[in-house]
Amino acid sequence: MVSMTGPNGTIDTTGYKAAIDSGTSLIMGPNTLFEPLLEGIVVEEDCSNLDSLPDITFTFDSIDYVLKPSDYVLAETLGTETQCIMGIMGADLPADFNYVIVGDVFMRPYPTKFDLDNKTVTFFQA
């Protein structure tokens, strides 16, 4: 993992590795990285501001992967009501937790191939 870029600029992720995890719904990592990335991004519960939210870019091996708000905001419809929540979040993690967990929010727009024989992960454009 090289960096993450949002409306507040680029967050250097030197020293952090990405854990690509199909068993995790969100993208998450230490607050020290995610608070400055997400500062000022507010997802309205009623989904009314999706068109005004910024793109967020994750850079792996010098390749930029852009997530649009429709990628990183999760919309859940129950009956006739839809509720939106942020699909990227920070957490208070131990100081030596040098990982960004990249889950389904990322893998929906970028289908992922896990090659166990060659120990590689490849992202494709959906």
Determine the number of helices (DSSP H or I, runs of at least 4 residues).
3
- How many E strands? 12
| Basic shape | globular
Span of the ends, CA to CA: 21 Å
Count of individual domains: 1
Mean pLDDT across the residues is 94
What would a concise description of this structure say?
With 126 residues, this protein is mainly β. It has helices at residues 31-38, 69-72, 104-107; strands at 3-6, 9-12, 17-20, 27-30, 56-60, 63-67, 73-78, 81-86, 88-91, 99-102, 112-115, 120-123. Helices cover 13% and strands 43% of the residues.
List keywords for this structure.
single chain; 126 residues; mainly beta; Cathepsin D, subunit A, domain 1; 4-stranded antiparallel sheet; 4-stranded mixed sheet; 13% helix; 43% strand; globular
Could you characterize what this model shows?
This protein has 126 residues and is mainly beta. It has one domain: Beta Barrel (Cathepsin D, subunit A, domain 1). Helix content is 13%, strand content 43%. It is built from three helices and twelve strands, in the order ββββαββαββββαββ. It has helices at 31-38, 69-72, 104-107, and strands spanning 3-6, 9-12, 17-20, 27-30, 56-60, 63-67, 73-78, 81-86, 88-91, 99-102, 112-115, 120-123. The strands form four sheets. Strands 2-1-5-6 form a four-stranded antiparallel sheet. Strand 7 and strand 8 (81-86) form a beta hairpin. The protein is globular and about 45 Å long.
Reconstruct the topology from this structure.
Elements: E1 3-6, E2 9-12, E3 17-20, E4 27-30, H1 31-38, E5 56-60, E6 63-67, H2 69-72, E7 73-78, E8 81-86, E9 88-91, E10 99-102, H3 104-107, E11 112-115, E12 120-123
Parallel strand pairs: 3-10, 4-9
Antiparallel strand pairs: 1-2, 1-5, 4-10, 5-6, 7-8, 11-12
